[in-house]
């Protein structure tokens, strides 16, 4: 198909920073994935929208595809199989739980595969270090922020800066503005130290709405009153509640109240029970994996600090609680 590189990455900050590092490596350094500087074709996408990317890839002069920060799912699997038919070289780097548990299946579909429990941006950063590619100060700062946001570790990075990047990440994820996404990726990958961000931005306009959210905070406080304590974890049974908020946002609000890992028991629109776990460490990752391995969960999603576990219909909730308690004693 000739030479050419396409980078397909998630809309959020982890995807943006991951994509920027590959662009820097290919367009500026000319090292990876191809030898020599070449323009990178950028495509933002989520797992569900990957099928729409196939036509764009098929009609382009692409020989290498780099898939970044996109969880493995049936949509991802279908996409990889279709791309493999085009004899395209596929590189897949991700940190989601589903990619970890299906790693054997992924390895059969791709040419290079890196999966880990740290954010995808940090996995790419480690790859760059292995290839002896020195990142710019701007990229290093954003890798640090992505790591903090994803819960990898604490940092001395300015709280205001982190809030701005969180707000920007959410804006990109909600607006699905491809032009803005690509501008940010190319700005991040620029080797010029004093280039300004490629769009005007009022920091307070982005940050303040994220800090308010009074309604969800009040609702979270009401739920917190019924929380059950399992060691340092707080379990909240909200299966009978009609949520007016995103479950992940509610879990984050509860986490801010307790400053400890939070387990939310919820019911989806199909009437099935599922568990959402929010933590700042690997607790969410570990518990989701154990629930899946032990047969309590039939499907899991998310990453190291926010996981979703769909429970078997015949599972008793009390047995799930006892299993979590036992797992914490053994693993955590």
Please explain how this structure is put together:
This protein is an alpha/beta fold and 332 residues long. The protein has 14 helices and 11 strands. It has 2 domains: 5-206, Response regulator (Rossmann fold); 214-331, Diaminopimelate Epimerase, Chain A, domain 1. Helix content is 48%, strand content 17%. Helix 1 links the parallel strand 1 and strand 2 (40-44). The longest helix has 17 residues, at 13-29. The radius of gyration is 20 Å and the shape is globular.
What's a quick, concise take on this entry?
This protein is an alpha/beta fold and 332 residues long. The chain has helices spanning 13-29, 50-58, 74-84, 97-101, 103-107, 120-130, 137-149, 159-175, 178-189, 203-211, 214-224, 247-258, 283-293, 317-331; strands at 5-9, 40-44, 64-68, 89-94, 112-115, 228-230, 233-237, 262-267, 273-278, 297-302, 306-311.
What is the CATH domain class of the largest domain? Answer: Alpha Beta
How would you classify the helix and strand content by structural class?
A: alpha/beta
Number of strands: 11
Radius of gyration: 20 Å
Indicate the overall shape. globular
Number of domains: 2
The CATH architecture of the largest domain? 3-Layer(aba) Sandwich
Biggest sheet: strand arrangement: 6-7-8-9-11-10
CATH topology of the largest domain: Rossmann fold
| Helix content, binned percent | 40-55%
Instruction: Give start-end ranges of low-pLDDT stretches.
Output: none
Largest sheet descriptor: 6 strands, mixed
Q: N-to-C terminal Cα separation, in Å?
A: 49 Å
Kindly estimate the percentage of residues that lie in beta strands according to DSSP. Answer: 15-25%
Query: Count the helices. How many?
Result: 14
Classified in CATH, the superfamily of the largest domain is Response regulator
Order of helices and strands: EHEHEHEHHEHHHHHHEEHEEHEEH
Task: Give the overall average pLDDT.
Answer: 88
